[in-house]
Amino acid sequence: MDHEDPILTPGQDNKQVMGLDFHNPVFPLSALAILLFILYALVYPDAANTQLNLAKNWSIEHFDWLFMIAGNVFVIFCLLLIVLPMGRIRLGGQNARPEYSRISWFAMLFAAGMGIGLMFWSVAEPVAYYTDWYGTPLNVAANTPEAASSAMGATMFHWGLHPWAIYAVVGLSLAFFAYNRGLPLTLRSAFYPILGERTRGWAGHIIDILAVLATIFGLATSLGFGATQASSGLAYLFGIPNTIGTQLAIIVVVTVIALISVWRGLDGGVKLFSNINMVIAAALLLFVIAAGPSLLILTGIGSTAMDYASHLLPLSNWIGRDDDTWYHGWTIFYWAWWISWSPFVGMFIARVSRGRTVREFLIAVLLVPTLVTLVWMSAFGGTALFQAENGVGELANGISDVSLAMFHMLEQLPLTGITSTLAIVLVLVFFITSSDSGSLVIDSITAGGKTDAPKGQRVFWAALEGVIAGVLLYGGGSTALSALQAGAVATGLPFTLVLLLMCFSLYKGLHREWRTLDATPRMAG
After folding, report:
1. How many CB atoms lie within 10 A of CB 462?
2. Is residue 2 part of a domain?
3. How far is residue 185's CA from residue 357's CA, in Å, rounded to a whole number?
4. What domain of life does the native source organism fall in (predicted)?
5. What is the pLDDT, as a whole number, of residue 62?
6. CB distance 41 to 484 below 8 Å
7. How far apart are CA 38 and CA 463, in angstroms?
C-alpha cells in the first residue's frame, strides 16, 4: 500500500469477545437485522410476501431501464479493460503469483457463480421460451423454428456475458483494492477513491451490512428452494415422499457437509468440492452429448452461438419493448438477482484470484464461463428442445414443474436411473460449494476484511444459512421463501447504483496504478 492511502487495515475496528473476532458494528447489526426479518417472515408470512413482492415488482417495473443500461455498461467496461494496457496490472503487485492452478481456480469461481442454476434452467428455460410458458422473447410466435432460435439465444443472453460481467466488476474491484492497495477484503474498500476516509464510517458500514444481508438471504433462498427441487426429484425417481420432512432432511445434510467443508477452509473444503463438481458435471455433459442427439448438439454449439450473437443487441435494448411479460418476468428479474448475488460471488472470486493479471482475470471470469455455458446449453437445452419439438416425452407438453424438467429430459436417454442420481448428487454438491464459499465471504465482511478469523465464526454463518432456510420452509413454507427471495431481488436496485459507482472507482484506481507502472518500465515489463 502506497503512502497516499489511508491507514485502513483488516480488522482494525474489530472486537474480541469470547474467542470471536468480529467487526463492530457490521457483525451485530447484520445478525440483528437477519433475526428481525426471520421473525417477521414467520409471524406474518403472507404480509411479508406481499410487501416484499410489491417492492420487487416496483423496482423491476419502474427501473427496468436502469437494470438494462447498467448490465450493458458492465459488459462494455470489462471488455475494454481486457484490451486496454492496464490489463497488464497484476493483482497483488507485479511479483505476485497465483495461489491456485487455473483448473482449480476456474472450478471454484464457476461453482460459486451459477453452477446450481444451470442444472435446472438449462433444460427448463429454453423449453419455457419455446412453448410460451411465461411469455416469449420479443413476442416471437411460440412452437415455431423462430421460437426455438430465440429460445436458445435468450437463454444464453441470461447466462452469458452480462451476469459474468456483473461478477467480474465486483470481483476485480475487491481484489485490486485489497491486494494492490492493502485495504480490507470487504465491499466498502472498493469505494475508497470515492468515499475516502468515510469508508471507515457509517457509509462503509451500510455498504457491508447490505452485502451481508443480500448474500445470506440469497443463499438461504437458494438452499430452501433447492431442497424442494431436490425433494421433487427424489420423489419422481425413487418414490420418496416429497414432504416437508424430506426437504428439511436435505437442508440438514447439505448444511452439515457445508459445516465440515467450511471448517476445513478454502483448500480442504471449497477447492475440493469445486473440483468434484467439475468432474461430475463434465461426466454428465459428455454423457448427454453421447447419448442425446449428438450431431444436433455438436452442430448446435455453432448455431447457439449465432442465435446468441443475433439476439444480443435486440435483447439488450430497453426502448420500445412490447414483450413486457417476458422482459420483466425473465430478463429484469435475472439482472436484479445477479446484481443482488454479486457481493457474494464477486468477493469469493476476489478471494481466490491473487496473482492474476487484470486481463487474465477478466478473460477467465467473463469469456471462459460464457464459452462453457454455450456448450452446456447446447447439450442440455438443445436436447430438451429436440424432445419438445418432436413430441418426445414429458417435455413435448411443455414445462409442468421446473424442478423436474432436467429429469424429464434425462428420462428419454439411456441409463436414466444412473444419470438422474448423478444429477441430484451434482445439485447437492453445488449447494455445498455455494454455502461454504458464501460463509467464507460473509465471515470476511463481518470480520472487518480478515481472512483468518476464528473458524467458529465461519461455522456460525454456514449454520445460520441452513437454519434460515429450514425455519422459513417449516414455519412459512414456500410463501416465506418467496418473501425472502423477493427481498433479495429488491436489493438489486440499490446495488445497481453501487456497482456503477464501483466501475468509476475501479477505473480511477487502475489508471493510477498503471501510471505508476508505466513510469517504471522495469516493473511494468
Report:
1. 28
2. no
3. 18
4. Bacteria
5. 94
6. yes
7. 15
Residue 5 lies in a domain: no
Tell me whether residue 9 is in a domain. no
| Cis peptide bond N-terminal to 98, omega within 30 | no
Give yes or no for a contact between 516 and 90, defined as CB atoms under 8 angstroms apart: no
Please report the pLDDT score of residue 383 as a whole number. 96
Residue 463 in grid coordinates: 449454520
> What is the pLDDT, as a whole number, of residue 26?
93
Amino acid 7: pLDDT = 57
Report the CATH number that the domain containing residue 160 is assigned in CATH.
1.20.1730
Phi, psi of 143 (to 5 degrees): 60, 40
**pLDDT value of position 507:** 94
The string of DSSP letters for 58-121 reads HHHHHSHHHHHHHHHHHHHHHHHHHHSGGGG-BTT-TT---SS-HHHHHHHHHHHHTHHHHHHH
For residues 118 and 453, give the distance between their C-alpha atoms in angstroms, rounded to a whole number: 33
CB-based contact 225:219 (threshold 8 Å):
no
CA distance 495 to 211: 9
The one-letter amino acid code at 7 reads: I
Q: State which H helix or E strand residue 369 sits in.
A: helix 368-389
Alpha-carbon distances, residue 161 vs 4, 77, 220, 363, 364 (angstroms): 36, 12, 26, 11, 12
Residues in the chain: 525
50 in helix, strand or coil? helix
What is the count of structural domains for the chain? 1
Range of the domain at 168: 14-524
Predicted pLDDT of residue 318: 93
Return the amino acid letter for 217: F
Q: What is the value of pTM for the model shown?
A: 0.91
Who's near 385: CB < 8 A, 6+ residues apart? 126, 127, 130, 148, 151, 152
State residue 319's pLDDT score: 93
Q: Divide the 525 residues of the chain into consecutive groups of 10 and give the mean pLDDT of each group.
A: 56 83 91 88 84 92 96 97 94 91 83 72 95 95 95 96 96 94 90 86 90 85 82 87 91 90 77 83 92 92 96 95 94 92 88 94 92 93 95 91 89 91 86 82 89 84 87 78 82 90 93 81 44
Q: According to the model, what pLDDT value does residue 232 have? A: 85
Specify the pLDDT at position 437: 81
Residues in CB range of 426: below 8 A, 6 or more apart: 119, 277, 280, 281, 284
* End-to-end alpha carbon distance in the chain: 20
User: Is residue 432, in this structure, part of any structural domain at all?
Assistant: yes
The vertex-451 CA angle with 172 and 272, nearest 5°, equals 80
Please report the pLDDT score of residue 115 as a whole number.
66
Give the DSSP H/E element, type plus range, for residue 255: helix 244-265
